[in-house]
Amino acid sequence: MNRKMKILAVILLISMASLVIAQSPIESVITKHLDKREGFQVSSVLIGNVNGYDSELTIVQWTSLGPSYWKNFISVFSNQQSELDTEVIHGLVDRIELIDGYIVLSLKTKGPDDPRCCPSVIKEKRFHMVGSELSELP
User: Fold this and answer.
1) How many angstroms separate the CA atoms of 111 and 8, rounded?
2) Under a CB-based contact definition with an 8 Å cutoff, are residues 121 and 108 in contact?
3) pLDDT bracket for residue 130 (50, 70, 90)
4) 116 falls in which pLDDT band (50, 70, 90)?
């Protein structure tokens, strides 16, 4: 391989590496919530208006993935993709929807006789915005 080909190969490798490293602003915010041993997976992204906030929001339901555990979150971002709030969601998220301006989560939580792996109690949680923070409705 001649010198020009080697230089071209190095430039190509560097540009490919920068594509892999580049993250969206939302992914960058999510990684700030992670331990160095954790990864994450985005499960759902919704865009719409939420009661208590006057402009469109992006709602991201994601899971942190540890070596032997996982934890669910919802994060809310402004239309400039800056983080407004992130909440831990206790339970296994089955569905997330925007209904009448509310963020509605359908999830399974651990019942009194459930093994840790297998929650069976179906629960619904509703959130709205109070200023720039998520607030769960009773």
Assistant:
1) 60
2) yes
3) very high
4) confident
C-alpha neighbours within 13 Å on the C-beta side of residue 59: 27
Domain span at residue 130? Answer: 3-136
Question: What contacts 24+ positions apart, CB below 8 Å, involve 128-132?
Answer: 128/50, 128/51, 128/52, 128/101, 128/102, 128/103, 129/50, 129/51, 129/52, 129/53, 129/57, 129/76, 129/84, 130/52, 131/52, 132/53, 132/84, 132/85
Cβ proximity of 33 and 53 under 8 Å: no
According to DSSP, the β-strands at 92-99 and 102-109 are antiparallel
The structural domain count of the chain equals 1
pLDDT one-digit tens code per residue, 56-94:
999 999 999 999 998 999 999 998 888 999 999 999 999
Distances in Å between the Cα of 66 and the Cα atoms of 24, 39, 114, 116 are 22, 7, 22, 16
What the block records as the tokens of 41 is 């997976």
